[in-house]
């Protein structure tokens, strides 16, 4: 029997407040289906006057007390702490604990938080939460490290052992890049399954709502050297969704060796991710270095049954960033692995101009070729890998750095570095660079070992004019590819 959700409530569904509310594997999926059959209701953003207009510093001064963490002192492998509402995070999120087959709402208590001196006084009422974070002993056995955060719209992010936060994932994207504006779905409720002693994973259920659809999620989170999320998603459209984005991820690329844009900064590079990696259904691996373009840039990598894609941070040396505080070299890569066949569609890449590193300006997701039909059920399963690298699908060499410089007014020099075990000991005489360009001429292709990296270097010159140029390059030995395929759009 369904919980008492959806019967009546300030947020469009009633919270399952009693411990006798049964919870099963299909509960949230059933709730999403029922919710999608009802008219959309805007989220509850009602807040006491003291919280409505908090600024960034005021909001940051509100801290959940660690000693009040869910499951603290119970000798369990995970803990949860919660975020207060306010600032950007005004909508109410209801959170439940699931134990012994029953769901119990976790009550907001003002006493569970500390407040900075500049936070205005407000009445102690039931506010719900803005989101939560999960902690587990990941870097050492005696300390519960922060593993992942669910906060804001449908955003979430995670880290692996020894890493710091960087890029984010989202539950769903809708109409990204459309002139009418993007629609931002919201996670409006979560259910946290109490872990067993000694468990190595935590199960989180989520209910998403938006004007266009409702959806359910089941996340199985496994922290470690690579933190893995197994995601089961069911989408129930209220309307036909022509431009849904599945497994979306969001990152920041300000500048790097391929795209500095006259930015005056002491740091050689500033980015959370430096490239998009794609492993397509044909078995081809692509590497697309990111850029901070002068104008919005949209790229589509059409495919049938993709094997994976992700926004990666391949440059792992501090010397490439020289930023002691930001530690960009410790930011995670995020690789998405579909489980099963996803059919026709394309990996979409959005590169948005930005003049500041505080803005996420990179988005990537899978867009199905066919619209998600209204009144239907659309199920997807995938795996997210947060960590220093993606699972390697093959032994081909990888591109690690892309440098670009002028060679007069009408030419650019491209210098690409690669690493790969398959390149060690290979006869240089048999290695060639294969470079092609649309609407341009390629000259002076050079391949050579790089004694400073232990890898190889491919360089070439490209004639440029006043229009974008699509480039492809890889290393080969005869007809045998030695590397993934480097793809790039040079723009004036």
Q: Indicate the low-confidence ranges by residue numbers.
A: 6-12, 14-19
Q: Radius of gyration from the CA trace?
A: 24 Å
Structural class: mainly beta
Annotation field: number of helices:
3
Instruction: Identify the CATH class of the largest domain.
Output: Mainly Beta
Helix content: under 10%
The total beta strand count reads 33
> What is the CATH topology descriptor of the largest domain?
Beta-galactosidase, Chain A, domain 5
The appropriate CATH architecture of the largest domain is Distorted Sandwich
Instruction: Compute the average pLDDT.
Output: 94
Strand content: 35-45%
Global geometry = globular
The main β sheet shows up as: 15 strands, mixed
Task: Write down the domain tally.
Answer: 3
How far apart, in Å, are the first and last alpha carbons? 61 Å
